[in-house]
Amino acid sequence: MIVSVTKIELISYSKLAAFFKFNGQIIKELQLSNCKKYKVSGSWNLKIWYTATLWENENDINVFYRNGTHLEAMKQSKKFSSKIQSHRIQNEDLMSWKELKKSFKNN
Question: What is this structure's pTM?
Answer without folding.
Answer: 0.83
